[in-house]
Amino acid sequence: MAKIQAIRGTKDILPEELQYWQFIHNKISNLLECANYQEIRTPIFESSDLYDRGIGRDTDIVNKEMYRFHDRSNRDITLRPEGTAGIVRAFIENKMNYHHSLQRLWYSGPMFRYERPQSGRQRQFHQLGIEFLGSLDARADSEVIHLAISIFNNLNLKDLKLDLNSIGKAEDRSIYQAKLQEYLKQYYDDLDPDSQKRLISNPIRILDSKNINTQKILAEAPKISNFLSISSQRHFDAVCNYLKLLDIPYNINDKLVRGLDYYNDTAFEIKTLTSKGQDTVCGGGRYDSLVKQLGGVATPAVGCAIGLERLLLLAKENIELPSKYVDFYIATQGKKANEVGMKIMRFLHQKLFTIEIDVSSSNFGKQIKQANKKRAVACIIIGNQEVEQGTVTIKWMSNQQQEDMSIMQFEHSTSYLKKKILFYKNLKSY
């Protein structure tokens, strides 16, 4: 019988690795909580129409990468390839703007895209997103960028570059697109196959091509900065000014367009200069038309997403995980002792001690060795003698001292036990 394995492009996150994920998640959630951003969780699958209308039918995500299927009720369903469209759907459906005109939200969870797996890129991957809905002010853009940079700073990540651009409003892009198309048509035969297809359907996406020859052709192409409306240029200037005030260095990249159709005005990416696989670790921008496009009341918005696998690749070497201890390891021998041990386990668990009960039925010597391996602060020993006397023996592992307590005394000594555990944890010799 063939061995069943994880599907290509998916990866198990084992307990040892998960400690790093939890460390990063806790750091980020604390930082965002301090900025008064509220966590939101949306379903991992949605109606495919959400992404057709939201992301755009001519994007690579919709055309090539979505996990799309019909369910048993013949509904057209897609596993979410990104987070923003789902957040906007939830914002509209739950009438969130009626409660607060400004919504500062964040999310974290798995996304799905059918791409070629490589370091830092899986078909099931994880993203953390920051979304600020309800403000046209350039300070909102700058706040989102500032929070993304703060996340990287909090994880001691260096050698990062912020690329920034304005892609204008839909009317600006329409004029620019015609000029770009006109310029590129004369080089049609020299463009890579993907860019040839995009020339008709979505020429601005050609700016994002990784093909070297196409990039050489683009060097002399018209620049979108020359087609911005006065309001778009003012907005971009204001964002740049706020970033300077916040001491956030940036690089204006006039070829930066992002891969989703819903963006307007500000677009940005944060890249690592010490690439370990994919170099873009964060991307985002303003999407003022998306709420209306998906059936809501026109609401300006700006946001970004961070790839957590890529972030972990960069941050892991800087993370020093806190030492893990077991407060009490429970060693028992004999049927009655096992029963008492289970009651002690329940009591300690209710009092929020970290505990593990030995279920091996080994002799006490082996069980105490196991307590050492688990870095237990104390081992609770319950044998026939303890059962007969109604007591427990506590062995403090760092100095091998033992003390006996009646079970009733033990169950009224929570404060004492917590102080002793803290004392031994803080001992330098431990």
From TrEMBL:
Principal subcellular localisation of the protein: plastid
Broad EC category: ligase
GO cellular component, one term: chloroplast
Binding site for L-histidine: E82, G83, T84, R113, Q127, E131, R258, Y262, Y263
Subcellular localization: Plastid, Chloroplast
Keyword terms, alphabetized: Aminoacyl-tRNA synthetase, ATP-binding, Chloroplast, Ligase, Nucleotide-binding, Plastid, Protein biosynthesis
A GO BP annotation: histidyl-tRNA aminoacylation
GO molecular function, one term: ATP binding
Domain Aminoacyl-transfer RNA synthetases class-II family profile span(s) in chain numbering: 1-314
Catalytic activity: tRNA(His) + L-histidine + ATP = L-histidyl-tRNA(His) + AMP + diphosphate + H(+)
CDD domains per the UniProt record, alphabetical: HisRS-like_core (cd00773), HisRS_anticodon (cd00859)
Alphabetical list of PANTHER family matching this protein: HISTIDINE--TRNA LIGASE, MITOCHONDRIAL-RELATED (PTHR43707:SF1), HISTIDYL-TRNA SYNTHETASE (PTHR43707)
Family that this chain belongs to: Belongs to the class-II aminoacyl-tRNA synthetase family.
Protein name: Histidine--tRNA ligase, chloroplastic
